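Look over both lines before class:
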Amino acid sequence: MTLLSYQILKAVADMGSFYKAAEVLGLTPSAVSHSVAALEKELGFALLVRSKAGVTLTNYGEQLLPYVNVVLNSDESLQQAISELNGLKKGKVKLGVFSSVCTNWLPDILNSFQGKYPEIEIEVFQGTYVDVAYWLKNGVVDLGFLSVSSAKDIPIEPLYEDPLVCVLPKGTPRVSTEEYVTIEDMRKSEFVTQRECTDADIQNFLKENSLNIKSSYHVVDDLSTVALVEKGFGICLMPRLVMNDIPYDVDCYPIYPKASRIIGIAAMNPEFMAPAVRSLYKHIVEKYKEV
């Protein structure tokens, strides 16, 4: 087994194609196919399923891939350490983000960081909290933005407190005359909800306040949720940061009791980061830490 064979296996798994993997690696499809076949022969079991629809990992391949990622990430760390000793700042950092961080913070992070470290490449992966946590644990990304409650056993540095707000159709009457929405207001309302993997902090708030909400609408993304609210299908709770991106005409109020999510930057091994990863981690903490 060689480092190249690991790189080829990961590329084929990522691309789902020998041909596309060959293009990325600058090899011929034949060389890629032969490398995988030789690796399978050496290991004694199949790593890939070949079909007309493409190439996918076998169960053995899926179990092996996280270890392959560890080896490749270790090699990347070694190369970065060598560059650092030579006075250079080079390397690649893979960063996992969820949607509101992607739209509100990511452009500024990319511009400001690459202004300081033009030789460090950042590869971005966008997904839900569950996606980012999975990518961190399996070595797909080096760093990932999560809420503190969704990180669970993953080490995380808290950065920013993002209040939850209640979003209502324009002009919706409320029980309270105050400039916030109460639990009683919410208790009488139909909700538009999202899957728990996309709004764990909101689900926690509902449970903590014994809000057994009524909902016929279970969507995935923030934009769809607020679009349904605008058209009068219910109300929703959202982090305030999310509402910066929303173009719909809705009313948005603080909630009582107050609640928030804490956004943080997570890494599986904060004490043993590659130099480029450590540089981006420090840059993000210095730029966004408020809590």
